[in-house]
Amino acid sequence: MSKSTLIGSNKVTEAQVIQVPAVPFTNSFHPVHHRNVIDAIRSGVVATGLEIVKTDYVLANNGQRMFGVWDLSGGNDELCWSIGIRNSMDKSMALGITAGTRVFVCENLSFSGDFVEFRKHTKGLVYDELEFMAYRAMKKMVANLTQFQSWHEGLKNFSLTEWDAKILLVEIMTDNIIPPSKFARFNDLFGNVYDRTLWGFHETVTDVLRDSNLLTLPKKNRMLNGVLNTYINASYIEQPSPLAEFYERRHLLSHN
User: What whole-number distance in Å separates Cα of residue 241 and Cα of residue 245?
Assistant: First the structure.
């Protein structure tokens, strides 16, 4: 099972998450403590018939923001299902979970990027209500995990030419999914570790993203997935992107 860890000095244990001081309630703001979130989602996972295999957490803003990753028992021989859990006690974001996968052999973690937000911090929330909301969110998450796993595995069906890989690399760097300073690492991994498919490209990027802040990872994954989906859609209709046309023109000029 996965032994990978979260990157950053803000990695903490579950006990440390639980020990974060509670934020006092106001008439309009009823922050849900990380402890209650963890307990409620754990109950929701169990109620859907899954098991939690591994947990990791990071904290930010003096413990007011929490992001956790739980590896679950679902998946297949190549990867496990994972969920990302976020919560804040400083009004910065709504409580939510997102679908993900972690590949066993390379330990890469990726998310669909879309959060299921199931509770805003408003007055009147009781634990029973939070637990029921977490259960409903996990029911939806099982469908999302199944869909994301299918999408992830489907990337193996798309071979990449050298030109296609260069086009995609420029696009993800332009979108700041990975910085230009990571080009050498990307080039080494894509050329020597992963295969020349869209799946290999995706795994190379998620491998490079191991060094990124986990709190920003779902957003970067969402952007990465969007770039790959655009490529897939264009390949079905055989419509080159402007960047692809630029590379093609440059290629022709270099051979004239």
Answer: 6
